[in-house]
Design brief:
Blueprint lengths: L17 H17 L11 H28 L1
Length: about 70
């Protein structure tokens, strides 16, 4: 079945160069990463954005490990 939400239709009737394909793929990846982050992050530089993303992922892994430690104690 199709994915949820409106998506832009892709034109399949033209030859896509490798460069165009790569840039389209990067845009899709960044879209999925960015859509759940606060708007102010987009105003940061790329370096600050990556640092913040790393902090968020570290926090998530910390919470997961904290949760599993609690389960082991019970």
């Amino acid at each position: 079945m199709g994915k949820l939400g409106k998506q832009k239709r892709k034109n399949i009737y033209f030859r896509q160069t490798p460069k165009e394909f790569k840039s389209q793929r990067q845009t899709e990846v960044y879209y999925h990463i960015n859509r759940n982050l606060p708007y102010t992050l987009f105003q940061f530089s790329k370096e600050k954005f990556r640092k913040h993303l790393q902090k968020v992922s570290n926090f998530v892994t910390f919470q997961k490990s904290k949760f599993t430690r609690r389960l082991r104690q019970k």
